[in-house]
Every structure is written in structure tokens, then in C-alpha cells.
């Protein structure tokens, strides 16, 4: 395959020299094994890919979001297709002390905090093809404020058990209602918001995007309001023990505030009125439930999809709570992107 011919579409964003260097490096990166280093790339690149050439390429200032978008529009874009914007963070373990951005991050693969670097990626996911196309990749550099907040949370968790002080029932005297849409974004959310806004500006009228999918770490009201400020709808996951309520459908009182919250949901006894589909494979029964539900921590109603799996022989049951701020999003689209 002639890689150089495939890279001709990105010439508006790169010079001819950079495109030629990139074709050598891409070929070496596909062929080589083990960790990718500049010395390893020079050994696999062959003619025209010396170590000095590799150094020159990586010292060149390149607007990678424009390069990725040009390649996507030139070879991968399907006009009229449905796309979701998806963000996710990856952690790569790294030893040593001099690596740029070296810190301690939580790795889901190791299920613990590890020493390494973190990279946040923004991709376009084709709903029809079920494929992801990366458009923007940035290294995560935590500020001193984030480190201090994480340190304080760890100290709170490590404190020895203390006798809980009994709180008075009811609402504290003098407290006022607060608007849950007016939130203070954390440095992490501000960083992600800047990436999303930058990507939307590049997409503009080229690709239509209405939804942003994030993992369960962002299943909160603050993250939802951050996404809504970007003009998108959030698709994410709630905690397993999330306190969800059905919307109240009964008669309202003549005086006083209107009642919003109905019965609290019991995940083992969800009414069949919310059942979307049911399937059985062997001894495993899978059910999809969907409905507009309320959560006291969120400022608006949520489009919730609950996926339950039950072992018919033992009765063991597990569930996953997916949600979106788009009340018209179908259960199939929400579960496809998030799961």
C-alpha cells in the first residue's frame, strides 16, 4: 500500500516535506514491534527515514486536529451518516523521572493509581459502522489546584473512623434555593470543555454532531452542564446505586409547590410499562428499560436506559444505568455508544 498517496489529502495542513517524512514514519510504526521510540522508528523506516529526519519531524509544530480532520474528510467521512463525539482518557505506565507530564493517575486496567502519563482523546464514532476516528489527542497535565484537591480527598478517606455527628432533620435555617444549572467547573472539566469547543469549531458545517459520550466518571450534573454549555447533549453512565425517581403523575395540591418526584425506582421491580425489549440466551435474560426519570443531583429530567441481566437458574441479577440529557434519544443509540 502506498502510504504517501493516502496522505495527499492532508497537504493543506502540512508541507510536502512533512508529508513525505510522515509517510516513512507511519510505515515504520506499522511494521515495528515493542514500544515506539525515535531510534526504533529510524531503524525500521528504511531509506529517507534517518534518525535526524525523525527528529526534525517531531520538532515540527503541527496542528494535529486539522491533520486528523483532513484525513477523515478525505477518506472516511460518509455524508449523511450519524456521528457521536466521544471523549476518553488512557493511562500509560512510565518509569523514570524526566518524562514530561509524569504523574500518578488511576488506571482502569490495573484498577489502581499508577505512575505514568495520561492522554485524553476526542473521537468521532460512526453509529452505522461502529468505528471510532480519533480527531484530537492531548496529554493531561494536572495543575497544582487539581493535585491539592486530590490530596485533600485522599486525606479525608484515610482519616480514622470518627463518631458521626447527628444532623438535625429538615432543611437548614436560612438556606435558599440554588440554580443547579449554575455550577463551578473543575479544572478537569474546563480542560475538556476547551478541547470540545476547539473540535466543534473545526467541524463547523462539515460534520453534524449533537451528542458527546463520556464514561461513568462524568456521570454528574457538573459534567452535564459543561456539555450543555458547548451546545451538545451528554451520554454517560450513572452509579449502580443512583437514586432515581419516576416523575410524579398524580394530582397536585391546590396550594404550595408542585410535586415533581414520584416513587423511587426499585431496580429489581421495574414496571413493564418501561420495558423496551427482552431477550434470552441460554440461562441469561437481558432486558432494556427506558424512561424519563429524575435525580435530585441533576438540574433536569434524564433520559435513562437501564440494562438488566438475570440468570434464570440462580436468580442473580445485575444492572447498568445509562443516561442522556437528550430526551428524544432512543435506547438503542444510547446503549450502542455508551456500552
Spatial gap, N to C terminus: 34 Å
In total, how many beta strands?
12
CATH-scheme architecture of the largest domain: 2-Layer Sandwich
Oligomerization category of the chains in this entry: single chain
The CATH topology label of the largest domain is: Nucleotidyltransferase, domain 5
Number of helices: 9
SSE-based structural type: alpha+beta
CATH class of the largest domain: Alpha Beta
Strand content: 25-35%
Radius of gyration: 25 Å
The largest sheet, given as strand count, sense and whether it forms a barrel, is:
12 strands, mixed
Query: What is the arithmetic mean of pLDDT?
Result: 87
Poorly predicted sequence stretches spanning 5 or more consecutive residues: none
Sum up the overall morphology in one term.
globular
**SSE order:** HHHHHEEEEHHEHEEEEEEEH
Q: What is the count of structural domains? A: 3
Helix content: 25-40%
What's the helix and strand layout?
Elements: H1 3-6, H2 16-31, H3 38-45, H4 51-59, H5 64-76, E1 83-93, E2 103-107, E3 112-126, E4 131-139, H6 144-158, H7 187-203, E5 209-213, H8 221-229, E6 233-238, E7 244-247, E8 261-264, E9 275-281, E10 284-295, E11 302-311, E12 317-324, H9 331-338
Parallel strand pairs: 1-5, 5-6
Antiparallel strand pairs: 1-3, 2-3, 3-4, 6-12, 7-8, 7-10, 9-10, 10-11, 11-12
Helix pairs in contact: 2-3, 3-4
Amino acid at each position: 500500500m502506498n502510504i504517501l498517496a493516502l496522505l495527499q489529502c492532508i497537504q493543506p495542513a502540512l508541507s510536502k516535506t512533512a508529508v513525505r517524512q510522515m509517510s516513512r514514519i507511519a510505515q515504520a510504526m506499522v511494521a515495528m514491534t515493542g514500544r515506539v521510540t525515535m531510534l526504533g522508528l529510524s531503524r525500521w523506516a528504511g531509506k529517507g527515514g534517518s534518525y535526524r529526519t525523525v527528529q526534525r519531524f517531531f520538532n515540527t509544530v503541527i496542528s494535529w486536529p486539522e491533520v486528523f480532520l483532513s484525513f477523515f474528510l478525505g477518506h472516511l467521512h460518509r455524508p449523511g451518516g450519524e456521528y457521536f463525539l466521544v471523549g476518553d482518557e488512557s493511562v500509560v505506565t512510565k518509569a523514570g523521572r524526566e518524562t514530561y507530564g509524569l504523574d500518578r493517575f488511576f488506571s482502569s486496567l490495573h484498577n489502581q493509581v499508577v505512575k505514568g502519563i495520561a492522554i485524553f482523546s476526542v473521537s468521532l464514532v460512526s453509529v452505522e459502522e461502529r468505528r471510532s476516528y480519533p480527531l484530537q489527542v492531548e496529554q493531561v497535565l494536572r495543575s497544582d489546584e487539581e493535585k491539592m484537591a486530590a490530596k485533600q480527598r485522599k486525606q479525608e478517606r484515610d482519616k480514622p473512623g470518627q463518631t458521626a455527628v447527628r444532623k438535625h432533620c429538615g432543611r437548614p435555617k436560612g438556606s435558599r434555593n440554588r440554580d443547579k444549572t449554575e455550577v463551578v467547573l473543575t479544572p478537569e472539566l474546563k480542560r475538556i470543555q476547551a478541547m470540545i469547543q476547539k473540535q466543534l469549531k473545526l467541524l463547523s458545517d462539515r460534520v453534524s454532531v449533537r451528542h458527546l459520550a463520556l464514561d461513568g466518571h462524568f456521570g454528574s450534573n457538573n459534567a452535564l452542564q459543561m456539555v450543555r454549555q458547548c451546545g451538545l447533549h451528554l451520554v454517560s453512565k450513572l452509579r449502580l446505586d443512583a437514586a432515581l425517581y419516576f416523575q410524579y403523575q398524580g394530582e397536585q395540591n391546590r396550594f404550595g409547590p408542585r410535586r415533581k418526584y414520584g416513587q423511587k425506582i426499585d431496580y429489581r421491580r421495574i414496571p413493564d410499562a418501561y420495558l423496551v425489549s427482552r431477550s434470552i440466551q441460554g440461562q441469561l435474560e437481558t432486558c432494556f428499560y427506558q424512561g424519563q426519570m429524575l435525580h435530585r443531583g441533576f438540574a433536569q429530567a434524564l433520559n435513562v436506559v437501564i440494562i438488566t441481566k438475570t440468570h434464570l437458574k440462580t436468580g442473580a441479577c445485575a444492572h447498568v444505568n445509562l443516561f442522556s440529557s437528550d430526551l428524544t434519544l432512543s435506547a438503542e443509540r444510547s446503549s450502542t455508544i455508551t456500552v
